[in-house]
Amino acid sequence: MNRHLLKKLPARMDPQLTDSARSVLRMIARSGPMTRPQLSTALAFSKPTMSAAVGELETYGLVASNGVAKGAVGRTAVTYGLGAGAGFAIGVDCGTTRIHAMASKLDGQNFAELQQPVGVADDNAVERFRAIEATIQSLLSQCGKRQRPLRVIAIALPNIISQTLDRLPARYEFAQTLQRLQDAYNVPIVVENNVNCAALAEYHEGAAKHHSFAIYLQIGVKVGVGIVLGGKLFRGFRGGAGEVGHLPFPWSETEKPRFQHVETYLGSVQLLQRCKENWPTSDGEPPVSTAELFSRAGTSDYARQCIESHANDVGSLVAACVSMLDPELVVLGGGVGQNAILLEGVDKVVRELCWPVEIRVSELSNQATVLGAMRVGVDFAMAGLLGEDSSTAFLYRGPMAEPSRQ
Length: 406
What we know:
The chain is an alpha/beta fold. The protein is 40% helix and 20% strand. A hairpin with a 2-residue loop joins strand 10 and strand 11 (232-233).
């Protein structure tokens, strides 16, 4: 294909593809490089239809030959993968202590990654938002000019995300960050909840890969649930589905439920505090992190008791989620939840309080959220190229009104 004949597509202008070309593009993006015979068989296309579809996609630079495959009888055939014109997406995990960003082609091949500590207080949202800009700029400097065009930036935040961002702290300041990003890169910017992103990543490439209905329960500094059904996120009416930190707790005849106390009680900060209160001097200094607590479970009986007690509490929360949603699988993640030592205790409580369900530990560990943000971005970009609707928690559409100072 003569490079001078390629139609140049601005990042935000998607081609009007024929149905057959869209089918081929979708298949290559999902399954990786394929030959024309393989594509024809998978899509039930005739040779002329396949030739026309591939030629159309080559014209736009959306697919390109990337090698030769040898068949069983010695014949060879050209394989086609995504071309340079398909571009790439950026996914960003904006956590409370670090910014983790990744760049990926639209077939899911990651080619650049960057992590930067934030080093600011959890409530200093403005500084964290500014750190997003610096991280993206540094990541793009790694990508070089060969990776073009950038089609979307997807950002994961530890907050409830709706189409209006009405429950996001520092909403106006975040909108200013998004405007600067759009001014700098002229691409769509989408935002999603961090636990939802982790759930989506586990569904596509982690512990829930072969399950149709899974929930991801994050137990770390904060607590939350991501719900994936048939590959789609369930967000609820205003983006709050899975916010289990708001469940009434404690709920008894003698105590009144407190706001977000599930999250406070099950969070890693209070777990450590409870362990330190009665930590035996014979076991040395108390652990300073949950990672240290779990690592000492093999040598300290008290550390194991603390973990077993926490497993019972997590099990009660899992039982509540299972009773409400009846998922096929529960994936435990987060800094605390991803420890396999919790599994036995959690499973025991769930069996006692409701019914057996498969429970696994996250396979993606600390990368789950950024991989999920990457998936959100790739799905959005592919939907644009395929002329399909893309369901997003939030798509930035322009400046937001500054809040009243009165």
